[in-house]
Specification:
heterodimer; A: about 110 residues; mainly beta; 6-stranded mixed β-sheet; B: about 50% strand
Chain lengths: ~110, ~120
């Protein structure tokens, strides 16, 4: 069965520091993978997605993620955190159906 | 870009009443829409898949008689919470599939916060 695991429900970084949010997927065939951001009381905004092709995917707001099949991972990174990056981040996968399966989410806090 | 409008953004209702939430795709047609429920500080749980002109497909454990879904047009899906109770209080989010293939983009509404008193 398809599933997505996000390690760490909370991540705290200082402004300007590297952001690393972890995501691992579980499926027999690599699915399409997504990262979404959610601000309080709002819906989800797509940061980036991996379908096929280049394994390093660049998204909005300076975020990027690398698909590593050997590690079944799709970690999200940003070189330098900004206060406005504080939000909830969800990794999600979709394979062979239209359903989007979400991870449990990681709350990113950014300290000045 | 594609916009999904969800209305209302928040609603407070009394226990036993019904509440309807609308999800509209404003500038594209969506044959498939999804309804999610999100509890505080938790992830999104898929409730049902809504297909235009046909019955919704509910996920295991979701009461179809309590959460009525109607997808009468290519731009509108509605979720009606019938005989609402306090435990139905949650954040409900819809999303619309912007295409016919499973790698088509998903566009999310801004959610509806339901509070049942």
């Amino acid at each position: 069965a398809q599933s997505v695991t996000q390690l760490g429900s909370h991540v705290s970084v200082s402004e300007g520091a590297l952001v690393l949010l972890r995501c691992n997927y579980s499926s027999s065939v690599p699915p399409y993978l997504f990262w979404y951001v959610q601000y309080p009381n709002q819906g989800l905004q797509l940061l980036l997605k991996y379908t096929t092709g280049a394994t390093l995917v660049k998204g909005i707001n300076g975020f990027e993620a690398e698909f590593k099949k050997s590690e079944t991972s799709f970690h999200l990174t940003k070189p330098s955190a900004h206060m406005s990056d504080a939000a909830e981040y969800f990794c999600a996968s979709r394979y062979n159906t239209d359903k989007l399966i979400f991870g449990t989410g990681t709350r990113l806090q950014v300290f000045p | 870009g594609a916009v999904v409008s969800q209305h209302p953004s928040w609603v407070i209702c009394k226990s036993g009443t019904s509440v309807k939430i609308e999800c509209r795709s404003l500038d594209f047609q969506a044959t498939t829409m999804f309804w999610y429920r999100q509890f505080p500080k938790q992830s999104l749980m898929l409730m049902a898949t809504s297909n235009e002109g046909s019955k919704a497909t509910y996920e295991q454990g979701v009461e179809k008689d309590k959460f009525l879904i109607n997808h009468a047009s290519l731009t509108l899906s509605t979720l009606t919470v019938t005989s609402a109770h306090p435990e139905d209080s949650s954040f409900y989010i819809c999303s619309a599939l912007g295409g016919d293939s499973y790698n088509s983009p998903l566009h999310f509404g801004n959610g509806t916060r339901l509070t049942v008193t």
